[in-house]
Amino acid sequence: MNRPAANKPLTSPRWGEVAERSKIARRVRGLLTASHDPPHPNLASLDSTSPRRGEVAVEFHCRRDFIALLGGATAWPFAARAQQPAMPVIGFLSSRSPGESAGVVAAFRQGLREAGFIEGQNTLVAFRWAEGHYERLPALAAELVGLQVSVLFTAGGPPAAFAAKAATQTIPIVFSAAIDPDRIGLVASLNRPGGNVTGMSLMPSELAAKSVQLLKQLLPAATLIGYLVNPSNPGAPVYVSEAAAAAKTLGIAVHVLNASTEGDLDEVFASLPKAGVNGLAVPAEPFFDSQRDRVVALAARYRIPAIYGLREYAVAGGLMSYGASLPDTYRRAAIYVGRVLKGEKPANLPVVQPTKFDLVLNMKTAKVLGLNIPEQLLATADEVIE
């Protein structure tokens, strides 16, 4: 048998294969850029400081990783006709921070599994985090659109959803938590969203009024309640109007407090005693959520009874919370992502609203503040943290 010459050049089909795999390598490296979420194990070696030589090295030395990543059965196909379809990529755009989002990301992955998608096996997720800095969202959204993701999942309320909507009119968008999305112009209507956007509504505007009512029930003598909002959030006017209307019916006043930076939070809480505020309402808001421990600590420092829009605040030491489950919202939104990946159109998927809201009381914090929780309030609580 004649052996081929040792220096025989590679045939053009072989180089075509390398070029194709180089393109895939570049795309996967792009997915990892700026992502704070731990990459899939099969992506660990996809890093190169030299574009040309690095790409070739990735192709020949990480072949096994690519097979596992892209779903190849046992061997990389050597002919173009045998190559498998590209794995769909989900762009995950969040207004929040990765550190305080571990629980909701786990819920998101659970929802994907329920829909038949497992990260690293039949789909990839490209994470981008604004960490409470909403001005970063447009660039992050544009970056994900540039990666040609199959669907954009937005987390952290209206800011991320609007940034994604502004970045593309063709890529499907599923949002996880937006207050009254039809009222703020995110979708045409709840039943028929239209366009390329749909998702989950976390906090109907009525909850802003409910938080004021609960504070009044806790503090019967209260005459002035503070309401914290982030003016950078498109939903802020909705919060304020609903809270003010509820306060008027209860014969109390609402003092609106604006904060969009850590410094603002410090100044706002420091001003509360002088302003004569009896209690404080903090709605579910991405920037506040990213600063959850700080907000709870400030309320404790200035001894301000506060109600929050998410259970996570009460668990972190906040006095009480009332709202829907944030992790469940992420899980259900991820199921919508799976339906979109299977071919359904966002325009035909109604916006889903929560139907269950939980009141959580932290008795340890109440004791520190010297508060006696009314029996009626205790009786209606869904969870009491001792």
Describe the protein's architecture and organization:
The protein is of the alpha/beta class and 386 residues long. The protein has three domains: 14-70, no CATH class; 89-202 and 327-348, Rossmann fold (3-Layer(aba) Sandwich), CATH 3.40.50; 206-323 and 357-385, Rossmann fold. The protein has 15 helices and twelve strands. A seven-stranded mixed beta sheet has the order 7-6-8-9-10-11-12, with helices on both faces. The radius of gyration is 25 Å and the shape is elongated. It starts with 11 loop residues before the first helix and ends with a strand. 42% of the residues are buried.
Nutshell version of this structure?
This protein is an alpha/beta fold and 386 residues long. It is built from 15 helices and twelve strands. Helix 1 packs across helix 2, helix 4 packs parallel to helix 13 and helix 5 packs across helix 6.
